[in-house]
């Protein structure tokens, strides 16, 4: 039996999945199409990823690894600014369209919802919590600050509000301004 | 030709539209079904509302009028608390499921998006802006406060984050706590 795929081959497969998602959307994407596009067998795809929702969530995670873990600038403001600078503006615009389509698909596909929560949302929330815990340890913010439990809500507001109210993809300038105007003042920093 | 409907008859029609939305969703709702359920003619429905998206948006607005306009407690904190107390918790839970379905439908129906923006989102944003402007006039907050342009984003974060992160409908206790922990501190109040 074939062993694990090489990292290069795995990256190639994920790129093909993302391309297909952009072309035909989640509902239109089939394991057959992924197999054809990547010249692999459906058996390999299922052995490696188990299911379409997991393959899609892994492809998205590959595209946007939980990089928050690598951030540690020594101050909360510095960490937030570094986090908001992780995205590339052009890519954010592209990803934003992709994610809108997927949030739509999540509504009808509980398995996709579960896979995205486990592979995308939870790692990012863990990374964010580590950034906040270090700020508490440094004495920058108090552990019982009421706003602390709402930092993810504030950030969801930045992304969803930008899209919903302004009909624009969030870019680095907007996110940095939002952090300075909203998140840090709410945290008393 | 028949004149305008009586307010009672109009309310009856809107209630029927909301019941149908809850039963079959936006895509499943037809003008035929509304006509049958309300014992009216399709001609009346189209004459009165022009189209399905507008009928649906008007029914939602009837269900949740822009009550922010009626709030004026004399302080920004008082106005926000009164705004968060407008909803009835049971109804919020019910409405939240209804709105999730509609946000989903908006993705595929630009006309529904436009009608909801004009009839639901804009009146609420105008009401919110009046509350904020009075706080500026009273000297409670400065007109050039950076967080001022992001108040709607913060509130979108409360609703969307509650749903997306916590998988719960927002209730009055949550919204009041969020306003006290996030919105007012971000505004320096």
Overview features:
homodimer; 189 residues; mainly alpha; Arc Repressor Mutant, subunit A; Tetracycline Repressor, domain 2
CATH level-1 class of the largest domain in chain A = Mainly Alpha
Number of strands of chain A: 0
Number of domains of chain A: 2
Question: What's the architecture of the largest domain in chain A, going by CATH?
Answer: Orthogonal Bundle
Structure in words:
Chain A is mainly alpha-helical. The first copy, chain A, folds into two domains: 1-63, Homeodomain-like (Arc Repressor Mutant, subunit A); 65-189, Tetracycline Repressor, domain 2, CATH 1.10.357.10. Chain A is built from nine helices and no strands. Chain A has helices at residues 7-28, 31-38, 42-49, 52-63, 76-84, 89-108, 110-137, 151-164, 172-186. The longest helix of chain A has 28 residues, at 110-137. The termini of chain A are far apart. At the A-B interface, α6, α8 and α9 of A face α6, α8 and α9 of B.
Short description:
Helix content of chain A is 72%, strand content 0%. With 189 residues, chain A is mainly α.
Helices and strands, with pairings:
2 copies of one chain form a homodimer.
Chain A: H1 7-28, H2 31-38, H3 42-49, H4 52-63, H5 76-84, H6 89-108, H7 110-137, H8 151-164, H9 172-186
Helix pairs in contact in A: 1-2, 1-4, 1-6, 4-7, 5-9, 6-7, 8-9
